[in-house]
Amino acid sequence: MKKTGGFLRSNWAYLIWFALYFSFTVIILELFVNDLKITLLYSCLLYIASVGIALSPMGESIARILENARPLRTQNEMNYLYPIFQEVYQEALKCTPTLNKDIQLYMSDSMIINAYALGRKTVILTAGAIEVFSAEELKGILSHELGHHANGDTKALLIKVVGNAIFTIAVFVLQILLAFINSITFSVAGKNIVLLVVAFIVYIFKMLIDVFVFLFLSLGEIIIAFNSRYSELLADKYAYHTGYGQELINALYILSKISLPSKMSLTDKLKSSHPHITARISQLVQFYHNGLVHL
User: What is the pLDDT of residues 23-40, one digit of tens each?
Assistant: First the structure.
């Protein structure tokens, strides 16, 4: 077994950010409950249940529906794609025996050129990718996506999404409550200086929360994007170790030719979830130049 990534190495930022989501959610809930032990208990139960649902077969099925992914249906699809996927999957299992034994290939009818891993046992190819890439190039792409499964990237992403959703809901409820208190206080204050001061403090507090949430989520987006770019490089490395590095290089060259060039701002670069294609190609080429052993 060749170790190329690993859950903690590939997803450290997701876990740190999930811990921050959890901590801030606890703080917000504590404002309502005013009992730290009860708040921690309810928060843990809420997060455990949510993550459990997200990682469950039901949660993954819902995610596939949202992504418009479907099983291979026609005989042509099965005859062409199934052997390609099975070849790569078997090589991945040799490389990583702990890999989920029930990963399935799905297809999206979108003509956007894309492929992605989802949940615990889903890999999706778009019709656009199938149309553009050859069978050999698809092997390189599929090995990359199986690398995401091997490194636990898809699980970490779901955990992060759950943390973000619960945190967002908690903040939204707090903002609604503060807006209600502020509105009521201003409406009944009249010339009462005390109530006007209270209303003003509530208003300032709400504004500070809005600023904090914006900065927190923006910083999180940048850090998660940095982790995501690193995870992509590790998944490319996994493709090399499973024996499909050259196939992936060829696919990336084609992708670079058909991608529309665009001038990215610094913010766009910081929030980009993928490294530049040339950086990915360069890494893979370097592996071959250095004679890095693969299975």
Answer: 989 998 888 888 889 999
Mean pLDDT of the region 152-161: 88
pTM exceeding the 0.85 threshold for the entire prediction: yes
Q: What is the pLDDT of residue 293?
A: 59
Tell me what the mean pLDDT of segment 216-223 comes to.
89
Distance between the two ends of the chain, CA-based, in angstroms? Answer: 8
Rounded to 5 degrees, φ, ψ at 276 are: -60, 145
Indicate whether 125 pLDDT > 90.
yes
pLDDT tens digits, 278-293: 999 999 999 998 876 5
How do 104-108 and 115-118 pair as beta strands? unpaired
Cβ pair 149, 103 in contact under 8 A = yes
Exposure b/e, 66-87, CB count within 10 A at least 16 = b: ebebeebeeeebeeebeebbee
User: What DSSP state is assigned to residue 34?
Assistant: -
Residue whose structure tokens are 């399935």: 104
Contact 178/206 with Cβ under 8 angstroms?
Answer: yes
Count the neighbouring beta carbons within 10 Å of the beta carbon of residue 186: 16
Residue type at position 3: K
Compute the distance between CA of residue 99 and CA of residue 241 in angstroms, rounded to an integer: 15
Containing H/E element for 118? strand 115-118
Closest by CA to 272, choosing from 221, 202, 199, 207, is 221
DSSP string, 233-290: HHHHHHHHHTT-HHHHHHHHHHHHHHSPP-PPPHHHHHH-SS--HHHHHHHHHHHHHH
Tokens 């005859």 belong to which residue?
Answer: 79
Q: What is the DSSP letter of 21?
A: H
